[in-house]
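User: MFS transporter, Kitasatospora aureofaciens:
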Amino acid sequence: MTTATVTSPDAPSTSGLHWTPRLWGTLVVLCAAMFLDALDVSMVGVALPSIGSELHLSTSTLQWVVSGYVLGYGGLLLLGGRAADLLGRRRVFLVALSAFAAASLVGGLVNDGGLLIAARFLKGVGAAFTAPAGLSIITTTFAEGPARNRALSIYTTCGASGFSLGLVLSGLLTSVGWRWTFLMPVPVALLAVVLAVRLLPRPVEEPAEGGYDVLGAITGTATVLLLVFTVTEAQGAGWLSLRTLGSLVVVAALAAAFLLVESRTAHPLVRLGIFRKGSVARANVVAFTMTGAYGGFQFVVTLYLQHLLGWSALQMALGLLPAGAFIALSAPFMGPIVDRFGTARLLPVGLLALAGAFALFLRLDEHSSYPVLVLPSMLLLGVGFALAFPSVNIAATDGVADEEQGLASGLVNTAIQVGTAVVLAGATAMITAGSAGGDSARAQLDGYRPALVLVTAVALVGLLVASVGALVDRRRSSAPMSVPDYDYPSAGSPVARTEVLTEH
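Assistant: Predicted structure for MFS transporter:
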């Protein structure tokens, strides 16, 4: 039996914009967890040379300090989202955040590369459960409309801030010692756990019909895990190697098996009908391209500034600060902006700013100055993420039933992590091929430029998809507000529902 989570009768009203201190506290706790989850995606980057030197790790082993987290995070998000729906969002959030704190502590204390990678994987697993649980708590606590848009804008802006400030904080902490990049999240996570126990609304569990899609969980999780592992390892093994091609064939077979299982089971892990809502499908594609392009760009920028221009970790942290600062400062204003313009209009503008930031960086050379090259891209990055990141999360959960908010949250977070892994692997391959193994400044630039072209092209694909969404939204705005629809979520009887056609 599954359970339907219902908010406690004494929970405060969340339909308006005047929130109680407890409700604000709840949002702050969820934002802290989201900030930490996003922070860990990028924060270890600047610390890698110091880690490799102290623990005597080879380059191929060192990459798993990053990839281990992405593997755990991206591979288990679908399972984490569904677990939040079935087992209780509050319960899953508390357990997973506690595990995240414990893994952070272990990672900061170990002296063995294998244990460090294992700790990073476990942190990723914790994030895979806290991210969809936290997002679905917000979407089921705040009423759809201005209140939810305001909450989601603040929440997702905190995630974007963590994502963009990761390199900044990494540079600052690495200048003291690389272990602080692992230890810093520990007290924040523990404080968030303590406050969450007190502040998160206690649900009332009511019996509901349903079951556990064990086969779907196995095939779905295995598909995403193997895909992330394959693209991460492809750089070392070779994209056309028998190992990589064979692994991709297995991924395709697992994906086909997963889709077959989900289309036939009565209570699927991923109800495929959720993608019939165009805004949800488009939001996942945009999330994949947006964060994938940024992940590849961040990697190029790190190599260029540190290896070619010789910047220190602290210089790099300060140089990248404008993007993260702009995103963080924009948080209070994004809710009203989303209400005024709608996500369908904001997404193309945000993707255009991101693509512009990547394209401007194509002007890099051996002696580029900060005001001419780096600063304009950082400012455009700040604008792009401030507009696009909250919008894509709102669009991905808008109009989804409460009992599937964990699923919708897991899907968009999976798109974010898999996009990062895939595009980063592609950018890495282009850097290696373009430089042809040379160490000269010219050889390095010959590797960086094709990678920048790739990330710009990926961002432009996201811009195209977002623009199509804006066009569809404009056409639907003149159509009738709602029509009866019949969805077929499982092998059982059709369930009548009404879908609001106007998207935010």
